[in-house]
Write a structure and sequence with these properties.
By secondary structure, the chain is α/β, with parallel strands linked by helices. The chain has five helices and twelve strands. It has a single domain, classed as Class I glutamine amidotransferase (GATase) domain (Rossmann fold). The radius of gyration is 15 Å and the shape is globular.
Length: 207
């Protein structure tokens, strides 16, 4: 049966997330239809959901004004997976450390915006991520990245510079980095197919 996925498309790397979802699903011999979500009404039909980065105050405002926020909360309450990346993690958190952000309260963490620096401080780091196949380091891309400075009930999946940068809280996986900006779709696989991620190898880059 074909899966239905949604990428919240109010900001961020929408096409890149859609491509990563395609790769992760295809690696399991399945098919998926990916929808770009800009208004209410599509999320209830989705099996999988991704919320990209961007500017967290803008994302949270648009999710609220377009009526998407309660649909995302209902999606998670139904135990359907959500991958929230960078600013998406900030919006999904219980505490964004910023009164301008209307948090969804889906991930029991407190975050610090731009904790790893501004755009000029972007970097790539090899991460050890719990649950990924083959124990191969994950090539995480950090761009204006937040960090997690307090963890409640969430499970820490990866750290960098002694700070949590990937967590799982029920059906939600949140990352401070941008997994859509690498051909390695294991983070999307981990978020959407937790129980069989260990069977799927990393994608090797070719020249």
């Amino acid at each position: 049966m074909s899966l239905v996925a949604g990428v919240v498309a109010v900001q961020g790397d929408v096409a890149e997330h859609a491509a990563a979802i395609d790769r992760a699903v295809a690696a399991r011999g399945r098919e998926v239809t990916v929808h770009e979500i800009r208004d209410a009404g599509t999320v209830p039909d989705c099996d999988l959901l991704a919320m990209p980065g961007g500017e967290s105050t803008t994302i949270s405002r648009l999710l609220r004004s377009e009526g998407i926020a309660p649909e995302i909360r209902d999606h998670v309450a139904a135990d359907k997976p959500l991958l929230a990346t960078c600013a998406g993690l900030i919006v999904a958190s219980r505490d964004a450390n910023d009164d301008r952000v209307d948090e969804l309260g889906l991930v029991d963490v407190r975050v610090e915006r731009n904790a790893f620096g501004r755009q000029a401080d972007s970097f790539e780091a090899p991460l050890s991520v719990a649950g990924l196949a083959d124990d191969e380091p994950y090539p995480a891309v950090f761009i204006r990245a937040p960090a997690i400075d307090a963890v409640g009930e969430a499970e820490v999946l990866a750290t960098w510079d002694d700070r949590p940068v990937a967590v799982r809280d029920g059906p939600v996986v949140g990352t401070a980095f941008h997994p859509e900006l690498t051909p390695d779709s294991r983070i999307h696989g981990l978020a959407f197919f937790e129980n069989d991620e260990a069977t799927v190898p990393a994608i090797e880059e070719t020249d």
